[in-house]
Structures are given as structure tokens and as C-alpha cells.
Amino acid sequence: MLPPELAMRAFHPIADLFPLITGPDFEALVADVQAHGLREAIVLHADGRVLDGRNRLRACIAAGVEPVFATYERSDPLAYVVSLNLRRRHLDETQRALVAARIATLGVGRPSTNPANLPGIGQAEAAELLNVSERSVRSAVTVRDHAIPALAGHVERGEVSVSAASAVARLPEDEQEVIVARGEREILAAAKRIRDARAAEREAVALGLLGERFGVAPFTVLNAREGWWQERKRGWLALGIQSELGRGDQCHRAPDSSSFG
Questions:
Q1: Residue % of the chain over a pLDDT of 90
Q2: Could you tell me the pTM of the whole model?
């Protein structure tokens, strides 16, 4: 039986950026620790919290094996933890984007609300650190802030892309619950419906604005005899451009192969 103080070790917020392993993967780690002991020391932050090795510590506790600790002594614990986890784990872009979204808010706020004691890190810097696009990070922020836990869980496990989840996450929570209850396929289908509807709305708005600017009722044609089109023509003439020249026999022709000998 391990001393209680080992089981009570707190995790550093940087360590919590990455999800814990569960299920068969964790069971395999426990079995390995039971058979071979702890192969790699658990790394502590200078404040005593676990910086790297949460899963190894949990496995030691489950296996009844005394853990070995080391203390991180360099100056960039965030880069250290990110580097280790990206090397060890096969995280897809969606999962990396979620981590980047957490990093982007990790150093925000006063010391009382910034337990990692880190400087503020913007989305662009977090995206570069995790090798993902800023657009993916923005989608991940939407999931982080608005998705119900069940939807966020699908993203954490890599079952649903962060872009699809962000579309669904903008819906009211009761609508999210109905969609998520139907499974991954319905989440993806709902995301497509939402994106298609938004694209159609943007197109309708664009066509409406174009019609207001150039349309001649009741026909959907462009009126080139007045307004902006005539202003554009006056601009051409002021530059000495005469659109009627260069046509017919005087029209410029692209050189054929004979031009090059």
C-alpha cells in the first residue's frame, strides 16, 4: 500500500492540457508497471505538482509500485510538456487544436485565476506550438466554450472533427443533446446541414445586396447605364483607356508555336 501523500500529488495545469489515458491503454500501462516497475521517473514542477507523468503515477498507485520522482529545472515547462506529449502520442489535428485552445487561455487573468503562472499566449502562438491552423484553434475555442460535455468528449477522443463540433456547439444545449444522443453520424450530418444553411444565407445576402445596387426591377439584370458602372467607365477614360480599341483585326493575339522558331 502506497503512502497517502503519493496518491494525493496534485497535477500542474500544464500537465492537464492533455487528456488522461483510460480504458485498455491505461490497463496495459498498469500491467507494464506491475511487471517491470516504473521505467521513467515522474517529473515534478518546482512547486511540487506533477508536470509530466500523471498516467505513470496513476499506474503506480493502481499497481502498488512506489514511484520515482525528478524535478524539472529548466525555464520553459510548457514547451517541455508539449514536446513530450506530441512525441509520445498520436494526436490528430482536432485533438491538438483542443490543446492549443486550452493553452491560449492558460496564462489569462490574475494570479488567482492563472494557476499555471504563465504569461498570456495568443491563439496564433498556441497554433504554431501545436502545429495546427489558427482556424482550427478558433473552432476548438468554440467547442471549449459552448459544447455540451458529451459533444466535447467526441472531440477529445478524436471521433468528431473540431470543425464539425464547433458548428453543432453553436446550437442551444437542448438541441446539441438531441443530436449527440443519435451518435457520430448525426453529429457530422447536422454539422453539414448547419454549414450548408449558413452558406445559402451568405449567398442570399450577397445576391440581395447586388440586386439593391445594380438591379432593374422586375428583372434580375445589371444596370450598366448608370451608377457605379458609369463611374468605373469614367475612371477608365481618365486613364486613357478606350475599350473600343484593340478589337477586330487590331485585337491582340497570343503567339503560336511558330513565334518561338
A1: 54
A2: 0.65
